[in-house]
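URGENT: need a sanity check before tomorrow's submission.

F., can you look over the Cytochrome b record below? I want to be sure the sequence and structure line up before it goes out.
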Amino acid sequence: MNGKVRYDPVAVWLHWLVAVLVLAQFATGWIWGWFERGSEPRFYLFRTHIFIGSTILALGLLRVGWRLGHTPPPLPADMSRLQALAAHATHRLLYLAILLQPVLGLLTISTFGKSLGRWPRDLHNLGAKLIVAIVALHVAAALWHQLIRKDGLLARMIPARP
Ligand code: HEM
Ligand code: HEM
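Structure tokens as predicted:
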């Protein structure tokens, strides 16, 4: 893989930063329930969840802005149309996830004085499960490229060695 077919450093660093933060959202979102209501660890995990989630929203907006101005390297030419379509659809869903999920989270805790009912919370909880499935598909695809196709695709998203 030569330098021309890599993601640029900003896209690479934003990708991995957001990926780690998304994992932290699953850790916090699913672990705080182990602690009693009103307990210190539960409150701490909840506040961390809100802080990291809001950071993801900001970074997600930054990513989409960056992406619009920076075309990613083309997919390997020998991938079928269907595979390319699946890759693009998954990537769009992942972008949508890092924007919509925090918005639903914010709507869950702050309804601007209006009662929105349960739907933001229900959709946020459903969103979490859908995101697990999409990320699993995404990671499985990355492993398939790395271990089975051996086409060096993962290297495009790894920081370049100086
Ligand atoms: C261990 C976990 C992950 C691995 C191994 C991984 C790997 C990759 C790789 C190799 C690409 C480049 C695909 C290409 O060259 O066309 C990519 C793109 C992408 N990844 Fe991940 N990823 C991971 C986690 C995540 C997570 C958690 C998210 C977001 C929730 C995410 C969102 C994206 C998006 C949106 C793109 C498309 C970038 C673009 O073309 O604009 N990834 N990922
Ligand atoms: C990409 C960002 C986010 C991800 C991946 C995420 C993920 C999760 C997960 C996995 C849960 C547990 C769901 C369950 O119990 O089944 C959860 C719950 C929750 N999240 Fe998030 N979250 C994100 C952003 C946010 C933000 C920004 C906020 C608030 C500002 C927020 C507020 C909440 C709240 C209030 C709950 C509890 C809902 C309930 O009471 O059932 N989340 N989130």
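My own read: The chain has a mean pLDDT of 94. Residues 22, 25-26, 29-30, 49-50, 53-54, 56, 98, 101-102, 105-106, 108-109, 121, 124-125, 128, 131 surround protoporphyrin IX containing FE (ligand 2) (CB under 6 Å). If you see anything odd, call me.
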